[in-house]
């Protein structure tokens, strides 16, 4: 599943190709994504000049002036940049075709992705308006995390996975950030001190920035927008390493289930 660093890597890769370009049309081969693609989408965007490509959580926002294309990659979506004479494969559901012949193509075998249209303020869309602070923004720090965890008796790992507390962190990076912060994923969120929240917020940012710098991870279906696989996963410190030695202390990494998600941690380095 594409996580925040992959989406941000995709955004950065596409930004320089899209911004300032005019949209020729949108080709919709299959509307049946997580929500149906709007029937009028081609009429709504044809001729628009793309003003910006932003990200909110794991949503990409293509500002077309009169409104915004909201794109989510779901479980298995990825965006490819191809020329307009490149033949589509069976899972290539949507093409954004630019006047200059460049095509941004959504391939999504499981069809949990989204391509929606929002006239007016995109951030007020029901899918976006309740998303918590962006972990890479200046608005996210220890005091924000401290405030967000005061009434939460749930495990900190669980809270970090909640997009109301922090936008789009995702399972892999929640595991990795907790290891870097030396905090057990099982600790009750409200028990974390201000100081530990500060360390954790800083480590969340550091973990994401390292992953973005490496081009995101390349788990299963994800390939960056230029078609190159990311290479962050070779650097995972705990994720998917159950039974292997901790890189810091040699203790075997433990794998457990929390909610429906896999958690990995070092029982010695990560304190409750
Ligand atoms: Zn350890």
Number of strands: 10
Give the strand order of the largest sheet, numbering strands 1, 2, ... along the chain: 1-6-7-5
Tell me the radius of gyration. 20 Å
Q: What is the global morphology? A: elongated
Structure ligands: zinc ion
Helix residue percentage: 10-25%
SSE pattern, N- to C-terminal: HEHEEEEEEEHHHHEE
| Terminal residue distance | 29 Å
Given helix and strand content, the structural type is: alpha+beta
The count of helical stretches stands at 6
Oligomer: single chain
* Poorly predicted segments: 218-230
- Mean pLDDT across every amino acid position: 91
Q: How would you sum up the major sheet?
A: 4 strands, antiparallel
How would you characterize the overall build of this protein?
By secondary structure, the protein is α+β, with helices and mostly antiparallel strands. 24% of the residues lie in helices and 21% in strands. The chain has helices at residues 4-18, 41-45, 142-149, 156-160, 171-181, 194-213; strands at 23-28, 52-56, 59-63, 67-72, 78-83, 92-98, 102-107, 114-119, 254-258, 261-265. The strands form three sheets. It has a four-stranded antiparallel β-sheet. A four-stranded antiparallel β-sheet has the order 2-3-4-8. A two-stranded antiparallel sheet has the order 9-10. Helix 5 (171-181) packs across helix 6 (194-213). The protein is elongated, with a radius of gyration of 20 Å. Residues 218-230 have low confidence and may be disordered. Zinc ion binds at residues 246, 248-249, 251, 266, 268-269. Residues 246, 248-249, 251, 266, 268-269 line the site of zinc ion.
């Amino acid at each position: 599943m594409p996580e925040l660093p992959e989406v941000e890597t995709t955004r950065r890769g596409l930004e320089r190709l899209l911004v300032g370009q005019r949209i020729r049309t949108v080709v919709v081969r299959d509307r049946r994504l997580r929500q149906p693609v709007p029937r009028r989408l081609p009429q709504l965007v044809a001729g628009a000049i793309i003003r910006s490509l932003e990200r909110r959580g794991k949503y990409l926002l293509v500002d077309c002036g009169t409104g915004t294309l909201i794109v989510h990659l779901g479980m298995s979506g990825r965006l490819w940049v191809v020329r307009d004479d490149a033949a589509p494969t069976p899972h290539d559901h949507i093409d954004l075709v630019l006047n200059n012949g460049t095509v941004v193509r959504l391939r999504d075998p499981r069809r949990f992705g989204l391509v929606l249209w929002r006239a007016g303020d995109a951030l007020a869309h029901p899918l976006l308006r309740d998303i918590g602070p962006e972990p890479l923004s200046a608005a996210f720090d220890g005091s924000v995390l401290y405030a967000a965890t005061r009434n939460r008796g749930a495990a900190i790992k669980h809270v970090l996975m909640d997009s109301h507390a922090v936008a789009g962190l995702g399972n892999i990076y929640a595991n990795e950030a907790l290891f870097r912060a030396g905090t057990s994923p099982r600790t009750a969120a409200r028990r974390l001190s201000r100081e530990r929240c500060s360390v954790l917020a800083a480590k969340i940012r550091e973990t994401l920035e390292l992953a973005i710098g490496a081009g995101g991870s390349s788990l299963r279906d994800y390939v960056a927008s230029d078609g190159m696989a990311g290479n962050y996963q070779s650097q995972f410190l705990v994720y998917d390493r159950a039974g292997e030695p901790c890189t810091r202390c040699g203790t075997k990494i433990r794998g457990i289930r929390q909610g429906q998600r896999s958690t990995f941690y070092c029982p010695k380095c990560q304190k409750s």
